[in-house]
Amino acid sequence: MTKLTEEDTELADEIVKLTQEKKKKAKTLKAIKKNFTAATTPEQRLETAEKIDSLQKDIVNTEQKILTTQSKSTTTRERIVTTQTTVTTYTTIYTTSVQEVKRAETQ
Question: Taking the model in full, what pTM does it have?
Answer without folding.
Answer: 0.74
